[in-house]
Amino acid sequence: MRAARSEGRSTEHPSDRLVRGYAHGDADLSADQTWAVEAHLERCPGCRRRLAALAAEVPAVTSLLATVRTGLEPDLDRSAPAPRRRRRAAIWAAPVLGPWLAMVIGVSVVAVLLDRTADWTRTVPTVLLLAPALPLAGVAAAWSRGLDPAFELTAVTPRAGLPLLLRRTLTVLAVLLPVHLAAGLLTGVALAHWLLPSLALTATALALGSVIGVGRATAVLGALWTAAVLAPAVALDRAPLLQPERLPGWAAVLAVGVSVILARHRAYATPGAPR
């Protein structure tokens, strides 16, 4: 017997009579038969094709489909899939990342100009004070609910989580580190003096972000940097945390941050995880 059984678990296909009756909305079909046909159609592409062919014979169905298609066509044309290059770019950069990176680069240029033209910086160059902390702004824009208007859509994609966050963070560093390298060369700031603190702050932001969210983590670290580094530099013209003898400490912070990221890598992929 080809008729679908009422429990909807049979591997048999519904008869042409049942499929035709379902397509025409036949009132003679019982509720059990209708439910059995629908349950079978959900898992049988062949029977769905049969239904489509039979439904095309029903004027009311074809008229309804034509009306719906006519109404949807303008929106479907406007919502065409983005080009492949643009989709790939979204994996590496958030939509709002461009303006933020431009702002950070502008601040870096101003820091270089101050170091080259002003004498108030004296002992502690402005580039050294700002370069380690500036990537935090880019990291916040790369993965923050409040700064990225497309965050809710991005966060539920299969590729979301730590891999996507790391890709976007690498994009931030790939743009900013060469800029700060050039700034260091122009102002005489040694590479290690700003690079280690910069990487350490970035890793700490990602590690802390798994607990309180990346946006909050970058805000907290920015406030701590202001209190522990910028304030003493402005008030006392010295920055104890940026002295060469502190570099092993920054390396240790970087190692701890990376270890925490690896240990909590699932935190970014779980529902309700802090963002």
UniProtKB/TrEMBL annotation:
<feature type="transmembrane region" description="Helical">
    <location>
        <begin position="126"/>
        <end position="144"/>
    </location>
</feature>
<dbReference type="Pfam" id="PF13490">
    <property type="entry name" value="zf-HC2"/>
</dbReference>
<keyword id="KW-1133">Transmembrane helix</keyword>
<dbReference type="InterPro" id="IPR027383">
    <property type="entry name" value="Znf_put"/>
</dbReference>
<keyword id="KW-0472">Membrane</keyword>
<keyword id="KW-0812">Transmembrane</keyword>
<keyword id="KW-0805">Transcription regulation</keyword>
<feature type="transmembrane region" description="Helical">
    <location>
        <begin position="89"/>
        <end position="114"/>
    </location>
</feature>
<feature type="transmembrane region" description="Helical">
    <location>
        <begin position="247"/>
        <end position="265"/>
    </location>
</feature>
<feature type="transmembrane region" description="Helical">
    <location>
        <begin position="192"/>
        <end position="212"/>
    </location>
</feature>
<keyword id="KW-0804">Transcription</keyword>
<feature type="transmembrane region" description="Helical">
    <location>
        <begin position="219"/>
        <end position="235"/>
    </location>
</feature>
<protein>
    <submittedName>
        <fullName>Zf-HC2 domain-containing protein</fullName>
    </submittedName>
</protein>
<feature type="domain" description="Putative zinc-finger">
    <location>
        <begin position="26"/>
        <end position="48"/>
    </location>
</feature>
<dbReference type="InterPro" id="IPR041916">
    <property type="entry name" value="Anti_sigma_zinc_sf"/>
</dbReference>
<feature type="transmembrane region" description="Helical">
    <location>
        <begin position="165"/>
        <end position="186"/>
    </location>
</feature>
